[in-house]
Amino acid sequence: MRVLIAGAGIGRLTAALSLHAAGIEATVIEGARELRRHRRRQLMPAPGS
Q1: Which residues pair with 5 in a beta bridge?
Q2: pTM (two decimals)
């Protein structure tokens, strides 16, 4: 099986890695001409947790 993944965001790259680990060929394509760094997002605990 072969899978095409459109977009190289962190979630899609993670999906490609998971598919690869499962023995599935994944090709990732990205439309942007340059890769850019994004600000890190901090996860906040839910209120009351």
Answers
A1: 28
A2: 0.66
